[in-house]
Amino acid sequence: MENSNNVSIEWVNHASFIVRFKDFSLISDPWIFGSVFNNGWDLLSQSKFTLEDFASVKYIWFSHEHPDHFFPPVLKSIPNEIRENITVLFQETKDKRVVKFCKSLNFKILELEHQKEYTLDEDVKFSCIPNGVEDSLCLIKVGGKNILNLNDCVFFGEKDLKKLNIKDNIDVLLSIFGYAYRISNPDDKLKRIKLLTSC
Fold this sequence. Notes:
Layout: E1 8-13, E2 16-21, E3 24-28, E4 59-61, H1 72-77, H2 80-83, E5 87-91, H3 97-104, E6 108-112, E7 117-121, E8 124-131, E9 135-142, E10 145-149, H4 158-162, E11 172-174, H5 189-197
Parallel strand pairs: 3-4, 4-5, 5-6, 10-11
Antiparallel strand pairs: 1-2, 2-3, 7-8, 8-9, 9-10
């Protein structure tokens, strides 16, 4: 892929996307094959992004450890000569399980302090903001654009969002995969309506 002075966002699959700008590239939560949650979840479409395509990626960010976001079989399948050129971004945790696992596969690691802004590349800043016990969201300031990825983090209205204390205007908002949160059964229509009208 040619380097571009324009910011691009490319959807990969499920909660995964790639942000590209000049020489910078970051993929989030790359679940690109396989089943998760005891074979209860499958991808809705086959990924066009391949293991060899990771050669064009500089950073991988994982929002949290659920297998539809952090899927070890994908990481193990990336060729080692590609893995050693990628830096994994993950929030600091007490158990450091994700960090230890990724180090064992020869990825470079950057443990992210909560809400600290990191310069990843020229004209690229990245912040990881925790939400709840294990989830996190990220703010990517890239090429003069601000991309906020809420991922699976849930906010019930403007009041909750204000607690994030984000001062920047947001150009692109990426939000939750809706049925991944709480009310997912087809016959729970009334519960979904109640939830939506309470926001």
